Amino acid sequence: MTDVGVRDARIGDTAAIAEIQVRAWGAAYAPFMPPEPLAEMTASAAPWRERWLAAVTEPPSPRHRVLAAVAEGVVVGFAAFAPAEDPDQEADAAELVTLAVDPARMREGHGSRLLAAVADLLRQLSFQTAVTWVFTEDAALRGFLEPSGWAPDGATRTLALGRPVEMIRLHTSLA
Question: CB count, 10 Å around CB of 120?
Fold first, then answer.
């Protein structure tokens, strides 16, 4: 594979990012998410396009970023991070808000490149730790993050999605 990398997302990337999000969520969450909320979340990429356009063009601060993984000029994945908002986090903590790769492009290294780029940028922005929320039952995402040094920090939350869906917070040191 040639011509692959990670860069800041651009306005022209937002439609692809929204499409990837919908496909990735549909594939990853189907085994454990109640069908009705999942169908609502993945019915259309249109509402997500507007959100990603705003995130790319009007981030709340320079510490809010959206990155795009690109292969042969095509966006194949993305990640977003921001300062952590959980009240128990210090000012030097960041949150990996999302990381997704097009299901058709999995296992090509794009997720690893995105995760490494996020860590590098967070260090440049003087963050010391990073956190992310994952569904407890999302074995694939946990299996990707945990070998890279992410571990549960004891925080949990429950989403009411027709039935309770549990999440855990993972954290990692950026030192």
Answer: 12
